[in-house]
Design goal:
Layout lengths: L7 E5 L3 H14 L3 E3 L5 E6 L2 E6 L20 E5 L3 H13 L4 E7 L7 E6 L5 E6 L11
Parallel strand pairs: 1-4, 5-8
Antiparallel strand pairs: 2-3, 3-4, 6-7, 7-8
């Protein structure tokens, strides 16, 4: 364990079966392995990071889509090793009827930033990006 390393992220979902099927496709593509979970949850792990779905939406909010402009999580981004992986996930998502928010393209966030943005079944914005220059120290010589 490393102090401050990400342990897991948990998403509240309105329909566990529907969301688990979606995340099985996406996280399976990204190399995550489905793990046993307690009732009302679905869980995936890769290396030391976990992603957990919680069927915990309250009745009054279960029909409401995620609002990324309200306080809280705006989006969650995964890294790709290549532009081809971004394109391959886009094809998988499109072939499964996933809502594509922004198709694969070059974005001006940093040099070489290439990404696809999409929504999970509850409207949470997700991203797969290939950003080879994103973590280069500009002060390094």
């Amino acid at each position: 364990m490393v102090l401050g390393a990400l342990s897991h992220i948990a998403f509240t979902v309105s329909n566990l079966d529907r969301s688990a099927a979606f995340y099985d496709r996406v996280l399976g593509f990204l190399g995550y392995e489905r793990w046993p979970a307690v009732a009302g949850q679905a869980k995936w792990k890769k290396t030391d990071v976990g992603i957990v779905l919680l069927y915990a939406a309250t009745p009054e909010s279960a029909d409401r889509r995620h609002d990324r402009y309200a306080p809280g999580l705006h989006h969650f981004s995964f890294e790709a090793d290549s532009r081809a992986q971004v394109d391959a996930l886009h094809d998988l998502l499109r072939n499964n009827g996933t809502e594509i928010l922004d198709p694969p393209a070059d974005y001006a966030y940093t040099t070489g930033y290439y990404a696809v943005f999409f929504a999970d079944p509850d409207g949470l914005k997700l991203e797969l990006c290939h950003a080879p220059q994103a973590y280069i120290n500009p002060d390094a010589t």
